[in-house]
Amino acid sequence: MTLWNGSYPFYPGPNAYFPFDTTRAVIVTIFLSMLATSIIILPGIRGRGRLFWFLRLVLGLFMGAVILTVQFTRDWETGWVQANTSYKSFSPAQVNADIGLHIGLAGVNLPLVQGPLVMRQINETIDYNEHFPWNFGADYDHSYSQGLQKGLPSPILYVAEKFTVQSPCAVHRQYRIAGHYASAMLWLAFCTWLVSILLFSMSILLYGGHMLLLTATLTFFSLIFFSTARNTLKCPIQFGSVSLRTDYGESFWLTLGAGLLCLLLGLGIVILNSLQPEKLKLIFSLDKSSKEEMWDKSCLPAEPSCSAQDELMVPLGELCHVTATKL
Q1: Which residue has the higher pLDDT, 18 or 47?
Q2: Which of 10, 14, 169, 288 is the most buried (most CB within 10 A)?
Q3: Per-residue pLDDT tens over the stretch 217-251
Q4: What are phi and psi of 209, to 5 degrees?
Q5: pTM of the predicted model as reported, rounded to 2 decimal places
Q6: Angle formed by the axes of helices 172-201 and 205-230, to 10°?
Q7: Number of Cβ within a 10 Å radius of residue 29
């Protein structure tokens, strides 16, 4: 048993590794609430239009949720390694820990989780999750200096030092600029997605398909911008005999999937509009609604038909003649 239970009394506590991203949870909850609200009114739609309407709803919400969520995620590029390394500076303690590297559009996230042998070495639970931002208004080097002052574990500081401005690895500028451009492309893609939803609701199908194609193009540009930083020459992140290697993460593949979905849907709408517009109207429940409207108008007892009016109409001269005969 050591003084202060093996921790530093004059520094703030570590950021625990939270089980999920709260921003992602909020966005997903909003879109799921919209989906649940729409499902409630689903029984009020008749016939095959119910299925088509539900598919359009699910696909549209999925594309919007992905494009908006990946703006705030930190797993565009991820990597993990388990290594035996020194725990903190000026300490002989060696720990076995899982060291992670999560790169997003707005910064880098560095988790450090205890390994299976850590409790035998030090009397402390290792569970860190430090974020070092590089977005607009943020100073990465200042965040790194604060980490030094807090006395963060050596593995976190070692990986974070690779992304500083003055690091010989020279990857900070590439990742920062690539993240800014990728984020701008995704915000534009989210705006074009909203415009496409508005056009589809107004039954302007062709231009809605064009906006989906533009949304797909913008998402592909965001992936290209991020890939330029991913392919730059990087310094090796070595922990003894093992090295920390990264690969494209979940957000990258989700963005790629959303872009491909927008591309396929946009091409399908444009092709159907030029080749078989009736089927396209059937998918968007346009022809059926018009037929139902005509049927409802024919069933209304509004005005007498033309044949009935013809039967009731009598020439004025004949009417006077009949009247005179009766008198």
Answers
A1: 47
A2: 14
A3: 999 999 999 998 877 667 888 888 888 989 999 99
A4: -65, -40
A5: 0.77
A6: 170
A7: 10
